[in-house]
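User: quick one
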Amino acid sequence: MSRNYWFHLSSTARTLFEKSPHIERSPRFYNKTPRSGVKRLKAVIVKEFAHILRDPTSLTIIFLMPLLMMFIYGYSISFDLEHIQVGIIDFSNTDLSHRLIKKFSNNRYFVVEDLREKYPGVNPMEEGEKLLKAGALKEVMIIPVDFAQKIKNGQTTDVGIIIDGSDSNIANLVYQYNESIMMEFITELQKVEKLLSVKTSILFNPEVKSSFFFIPGLVAILLMMISAILTSLSISREKESGSIDLIFISPLRTREIIIGKTIPYIGVALGIGAVILLFARFWFGIPFRGSITVLFIFSFLYIVAGLSIGILISTIAPNQKVAMFATLLITMLPSIMLSGFIFPLDSLAPVLRAIAHIVPATYFLRIIRGVVVKGASLKHFVMEGAALIIFAAVLLTLAGIKFSRNRKKK
Amino acid sequence: MIFISPLIQIILLGYVVKTDIDRVRVEIVNLSQNIHAVRIINRIQHTPLFNVEGIYYQDRDCMETFKKGKVKAVIVFRDALERVDKKTGRENPLKYPEIQVIMDGIDSNTSSVAAGYFNGIIKKYILTDVERKGFRMPVENKTLIRFNPRLRSINYIGPGIVALLLTLVGLFLTSVSIVREKEQQTMDTLLISPLTALQIYIGKALPMAIICIFQMFLGIGVVTLWFDISIRGNLLYLLLTAVVFLFATLSYALLISTIASTQQQALFFAWFSMITFILLSGLFTPTENVPPAFQFLVKINPLSYMIKIIREIFLKGNGIEYFYKDLLSLAAIAVTVVTVSLLNFKRFISK
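Assistant: Done. Structure below.
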């Protein structure tokens, strides 16, 4: 677009333009149009800040919504497994079988009940089957009549274990707990040292709480959602009100508009991020072992990636409604499903794993879990940081291309 | 769209939502000169459960590896320092290496499952080795896994996704339906027509219900044929449950759509209700873990009942005697939501 175009503007557009004084230009002041890109950029930023401050309600909602979600979901999502209900049918009823049962009831994961004692008069096997089907029991253990005798005679005796396999993960854990308790029982029985000692030490999360896994993940997902929503509304809002035409015809370069519209939201999103992180630290008690500066740097990159998704959407979407919905869909679903937030990435199909690599949350999840819980530093996540930068750069460029195309069409 | 979208959704979700834990990335540090160590490592390499990222023969700083987050566990083999145990004075005749497993505890679920896998491998190895040397185990577990013997997570998730599909379609399409008429002002035409509030209400809900039921059967077809999950129970019970569930969901969606003034608001409401419904339904994570203060959210969530019942029907083949209580609770929720939303609708119409 040639600069001479300015002189051919209709008078109405001219007056409209003069009503927004913080954009330091109007045809009349053509000569005053700042020649330095920095100054023009500053004008866009100032204008965008005005947009944000003019709508305090939305700003409050955007601050409160993630806190509310964090509160509800942070408490609700958990894989921790305790109180596994086990029904025991003890046909042997000897000291040895009681010792075995005691081993189970002393374990913190199992809640043991004797089916013959609890439901006298009915066939315990049938009762066990019924309770298993109803989901009241996760496991039924059957100790045979000749349990003690066979052990004394030096023969091998079998203990029947029936596990409800419907939830494969729980079933897997229940199975493993069973095996390890039985191993303990055997070594005690033989009065021998363990044949082989496997020492398991669990780092970073000795109590094995799943909140250490989920809460930082939740921070990543909320941050992505919020930052993308923020910018997705910025250009589509101008489309709805028609003020986009004024920006189209202004002498601003496309990159100045795109960057200028992104920068103010970095501040807002960082503020929200800080609030969410404080919530995670002090309400959910997630330890912060890493350096705040490192976390800040990566959060900054991640937020820019999120904002650039929003900008791209908002150059494509015709109005705020579409923009908002597309943003929720595009950011929430892959961030939850394909980032390793709940479902382990390693067991995904190869195609989906490839897709996961273009989801920024995948990288940030690794970073935030590493920095917050493990105390990792900058050098551990150079690749992830680079990926985030590339992601943001590509999307911002695409947004710029799309924007200047729209501009030329007008 | 109505045909294809549920197909795509189910197939995609079926592949993504996998809680199976396999290919756990581990690093092995072998400082032992024991032949057993080599044999055990060989077994670890040949199971699909683990993905060995590297084998090292010198001591390494495992803290660094963990911080990078490349592996979930480091397994270290060391020679036992002394062949004679000091405490018991007994010679360790088998001379197994000392094994140390260091786990990244952040992903608590993966680490506990992986630790279990590892112990299983070790145990099997020792058993075969020990038996070769003529030793017998006094007790052996004979484990039978019911309902899902191959422990595939899709068997558990698949039926849940069918229930999810019902919610998705029901909530989204229905919640914008009245708002759209409000926005286009065709609502006024409906209001001055001789139809009663109840008639309009049913007229809005019924076509949606039929579409949803149709999609549910399409979903069941995909789940059974594509993902190879068998239905052990009676489909009629499922239909009954689905109808009750749809009553609740569709009325809730209509409630949203009478309250919201723009389609955007309606979608926003529907979206957040749906996320909350899903996360508190037991679809991905067990609801037993939801703290008592939030249990009421699970109790009033129709999706949690629906998912529970559909799983029982699919996996366990349970008859109604097993889940009539859940069905009654679901019905109670449905009646409450229908009443509230109908009252609200009448008030909205009389305006």
